[in-house]
Write a structure and sequence with these properties.
This protein is an alpha/beta fold. It has helices at 34-40, 72-92, 107-118, 161-173, 191-204; strands spanning 9-12, 19-23, 45-49, 53-55, 58-60, 64-66, 69-70, 100-105, 125-129, 147-153, 177-183. The chain has a 7-stranded mixed β-sheet with strand order 1-3-2-8-9-10-11, with helices on both faces. A two-stranded antiparallel sheet has the order 4-5. A two-stranded antiparallel sheet has the order 6-7.
Length: 206
């Protein structure tokens, strides 16, 4: 655990060269997704930063103006900041930069979605759990062949279904190997969803 790389974070060393960049949801912290990361890939390095923005005392990765309405200038600034952290952490912990995969939930999934759009070469792939478009790019990034999993709840009152479809279409148009999987519930994570992520990671060859 440390903050010398610009973010309060937790790092757990693995053995197979894969690194999961764990990005928590609103109100989470650097410990929230570590257990999930171990379930998804028991041998991966786990890199888990804490969001720097506070909303009513709850950590987030970027500000929002209202539910589902993002402060885009802040989002862009925080995305650049997070990308710098990932690059520094790769050097500090001797991570393979070609095998860093984001695993983000809700707010964490949204900033991971932004990383893919602004830094298409930073991540080898991403599992975005209950994400929506962070912004609409003027020019599509080159995500050719990059595996991306997007999960969405059919009854999610925080991320409307059409928003998940729009995000998926952005990635398809960018050339990614996009998988959009619908869950029957809402914004919560379920054991079935976790197994889907685990299977996707194994099948993607990351």
């Amino acid at each position: 655990m440390g903050e010398d790389l610009g973010f309060q974070h937790r790092f757990v060393a693995g053995s197979d060269g894969l690194t999961l960049l764990l990005l928590h949801g609103t109100g989470g912290n650097e410990n929230d997704l570590v257990g999930l990361g171990k379930v998804i890939s028991g041998n991966a390095n786990l890199l888990s930063p804490r969001g720097k923005v506070l909303e009513n005392g709850m950590p987030r990765f970027f500000r929002r103006l209202a539910m589902g309405v993002f402060d885009v200038p802040d989002l862009l600034e925080r995305t650049h900041e997070l990308a710098g952290f990932v690059e520094r952490a790769a050097d500090e912990y001797s991570l393979d930069p070609a095998r860093i995969v984001a695993l983000g939930y809700s707010n964490g999934a949204n900033i991971a979605a932004s990383l893919l759009l602004l830094y298409p070469d930073l991540l080898a792939g991403a599992a975005l759990l209950h994400a929506m478009p962070p912004f609409y790019p003027d020019k599509m990034p080159n995500l050719d062949g990059k595996p991306i999993l997007l999960t969405a709840g059919r009854n999610d009152d925080m991320v409307p279904g059409e928003q998940a479809e729009v995000l998926g279409e952005i990635y398809r148009r960018s050339g990614a190997e996009m998988s959009l999987v619908w869950m029957p519930g809402g914004h919560e994570l379920t054991p079935t969803e976790i197994q889907i992520v685990k299977d996707w990671l194994k099948e993607s060859g990351l």
